[in-house]
């Protein structure tokens, strides 16, 4: 369904009944990333709320980069909860969605029972993970070059994007969405506004610790993130902290290993509900 939040139209998939779980996708995905988790959570008695972030999927795609300030994304997520009259929810994010979920939990800790971060840890941990992590994040700088990044990704029928997405289980679906030039540019805006070049080369500003029970999950086949960037999150949590790793799985664990992810989620959410 489509909802209007903070002056922008967002596509939101809602299903099930029970305690709410807000599922936040990353780049370059949509709410469809969570279809396996939504089914398992619904069957276990949870209500799932999975939006397409602004700039992605069927949601609005403003063309000015300032419309993708991370604070606006946080406002969207809180506004979605308000729209559906959800006072408190579990919060789950993958990739950029994990970063946005963390910032949302920091902004409104009373609204969240738990936080699950898939692939991406606290910005302070990512920034402190050393040279190996910076090398893996090389594309952050490329994505800042407006026009150049779009041409590079789409060249030769998106050959470079296919290579960059080499471990994504559904690259054709992603690329089909990015054939719309507006969608390609809007998707990159979260990098352009969310991570200035100086932050890629240094450490992020002093970001507060995570104030709710938090689980971090990393997979050893992730070509974009080191394990240290997730395990270091332990130093940035004031609530309880749980770390899990998945062997032989790439970056898109919700699609690549849905049963393993579902098992971890259901166990952690049950713990947080106690």
From TrEMBL:
Residues 20-256 form the AB hydrolase-1 domain. Transmembrane segments: none annotated. It holds the Pfam family Abhydrolase_1. Keywords: Hydrolase. GO terms for molecular function: hydrolase activity. This is Alpha/beta fold hydrolase. It comes from Nonomuraea mangrovi. The lineage of its organism: Bacteria, Bacillati, Actinomycetota, Actinomycetes, Streptosporangiales.
């Amino acid at each position: 369904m489509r909802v209007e939040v903070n002056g922008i139209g967002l596509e939101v998939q809602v299903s099930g009944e029970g305690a709410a779980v807000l599922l936040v996708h990353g780049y370059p995905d949509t709410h469809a990333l969570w279809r396996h988790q939504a089914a398992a959570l619904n069957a276990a008695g949870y209500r799932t709320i999975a939006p397409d972030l602004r700039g992605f999927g069927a949601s609005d795609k403003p063309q000015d980069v300032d419309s993708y300030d991370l604070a606006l994304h946080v406002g969207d997520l809180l506004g979605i909860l308000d729209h559906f009259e959800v006072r408190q929810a579990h919060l789950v994010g993958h990739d950029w969605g994990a970063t946005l979920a963390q910032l949302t939990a920091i902004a409104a800790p009373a609204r969240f029972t738990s936080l699950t971060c898939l692939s991406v840890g606290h910005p302070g941990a990512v920034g402190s993970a050393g040279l190996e992590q910076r090398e893996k994040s090389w594309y952050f700088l490329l994505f800042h070059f407006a026009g150049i990044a779009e041409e590079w990704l789409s060249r030769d029928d998106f050959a470079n994007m296919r290579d960059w997405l080499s471990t994504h289980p559904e690259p054709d679906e992603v690329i089909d969405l990015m054939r719309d030039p507006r969608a390609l540019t809007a998707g990159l805006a979260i990098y352009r506004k969310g991570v200035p070049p100086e932050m890629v080369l240094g450490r992020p500003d002093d970001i507060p610790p995570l104030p709710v029970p938090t689980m971090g999950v990393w997979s050893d086949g992730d070509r974009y993130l080191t394990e240290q960037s997730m395990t270091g999150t332990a130093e940035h949590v004031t609530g309880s902290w749980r770390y899990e790793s998945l062997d032989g799985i790439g970056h898109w664990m919700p699609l690549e290993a849905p049963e393993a992810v579902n098992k971890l989620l259901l166990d952690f959410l049950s713990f947080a509900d106690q």
